[in-house]
Amino acid sequence: MTDELAKNFREIFQHEHQDIFFAPGRVNLIGEHIDYNGGLVMPAAITFGTYLLTAPNTIGKFRMRSINFDESLDIDVQNSYSKKDESWFYYPLGVIDRFAKAGFELKGLDMLYFGNIPIGSGLSSSASIEVVTAFALNQLTNAGYSKLELVKISKDVENNFIGVNSGIMDQFAVAFGEDSKALKLNCDTLDYEAVDCNLGDYLLAIINTNKPRKLAESKYNERVTECQEALKALQQELEIQNLCDITGETFSEHAQLITNEIVRKRAKHVVEENDRVHKAAKELAANNLEAFGKLMYASHDSLKNQYEVSGKELDAVVEYSLTNPNVAGARMTGAGFGGCAIALVKKDYFDQYSKELISYYTDKIGYEPGVYSSLIGDGVRSLNGTLVH
Predict the structure, then answer these.
(1) Cβ atoms within 10 A of the Cβ of 299, count?
(2) Residues of the chain with pLDDT > 90: what percent?
(3) The dihedral of CA 73, 78, 79, 84: what is its sign?
(4) Calpha distance 106→103 (Å, rounded)
(5) Residue 125 labeled ligand binder
(6) What is the pLDDT of residues 283-293, one digit of tens each?
(7) pLDDT for 123
């Protein structure tokens, strides 16, 4: 892979690259739609992501190219930048803008990107580009930022330069991911625990539904409002700041305070999903993948029936997975309404799983899904061998 990219760099820029960096994509193993309710998420870095090859140039320009996209950018080194359209290169340019405004001395740089994350699949291709760029600039300018500071810079770019109002989980997982570890993360405090996640005889199947993941902002905002309504109702008797401050048992004892049945369903998902994250951490630490898989199925069922953010495409993946004895668990991952599902599949049976799932899904939905295999890998790093701690 890197040899081929080095050749591409040489052909495009007419000289050799000097440095190469990599940032993964991410999946959320469990803990969906609870980050904005004070709960825990459990993301993990995956083994495909974004490669960035760099070398200085003497013409005082940032020259950005991508193997994945035809659009390119040549732009002078300057003190600030702005976004003009939806081109891919605004993700790295936003990071450059933050370094420029922080006063670091920037010089001309040739930059070649290649990503093997399916674009628009909900596996955080944008966070991967942001974090690999921030990591590279941090090293090349000797800026001295910590990894957490790079995460915050990348999130700021996503929110305020790109204009997407997302949380910090994606950038955090991309930066802090560890080989064979899941991150039990509190998105409010950024406290996290790396939980053992040795998949053993299993691998992580990532299934791209190929349904465009156009997350209806109104649906997302609707869920947030419903959760706020549920919280307000529970606060009549409970001194809590977030829905995830209580357990499922406590919720059951006070659920009658929520008179709207739909709102009660939303809150039930949130509270019980947060409980599932705690249970999942224990099962993974004990290397009990079968029990973890059952929690994945329970999570999907709740997202489908209580929170109603799944869809026929995601449900089809889980329906097939339930029939296959070589699958420990499966669920939608991410915001829903399309995007990806994940499944824990025995390594020796992945090819069979992939073939049969594609057939089942195509018969039911009318077009093929993309099926990929991954392990849980490390976060952003230099492939020259240098890491930020």
Answers:
(1) 27
(2) 88
(3) negative
(4) 9
(5) yes
(6) 999 999 999 99
(7) 80
Rounded Cα–Cα distance for residues 192 and 183 (Å): 6
pLDDT tens across 62-109, in order?
Answer: 999 999 999 999 999 999 999 999 999 999 999 999 999 999 999 999
Cβ atoms of residues 49 and 24 within 8 Å:
yes
Joined together, the tokens standing for residue 56 give 């200085």
pLDDT of residue 218: 58
Same domain as 218, residue 172: no
> Considering all CA atoms of the chain, what is the largest pairwise distance in Å, rounded to the nearest integer?
69
d(CA 338, CA 312): 9
Entry pTM = 0.91
Supply the DSSP string of 146-198, one letter for each residue. Answer: -HHHHHHHHHHIIIIII-----SHHHHHHHH--TTEEEEEETTT--EEEEE--
Q: Is 122 annotated as a binding residue?
A: yes
**Is residue 388's pLDDT more than 50?**
no
> Is 34 assigned a ligand-binding role in the annotation?
yes
Q: Of the residues 170, 188, 201, 245, which is catalytic? A: 170
Q: Report if residue 93 sits inside a domain.
A: yes
Note whether residue 389 is domain-resident. Answer: no
Q: Find out whether 120 is annotated in a ligand binding site.
A: yes
pLDDT of residue 22: 98
Determine if residue 220 is labeled as part of a ligand binding site.
yes
- Specify the pLDDT at position 389: 38
| CATH at 123 | 3.30.230.10
Number of domains in the chain: 2
Residues 179 and 259 in one domain: no
Domain that holds residue 44: 2-197+377-382
What tokens were used for 46?
Answer: 């995956």
Q: Is 170 a catalytic residue?
A: yes
Give the DSSP per-residue string, 7-76: HHHHHHHSS---EEEEEEEEEEEE--S-GGGT-EEEEEEEEEEEEEEEEE-SSSEEEEEESS-S--EEEE
Residue 158 marked in a binding site = yes
Annotated binding residue 126: yes
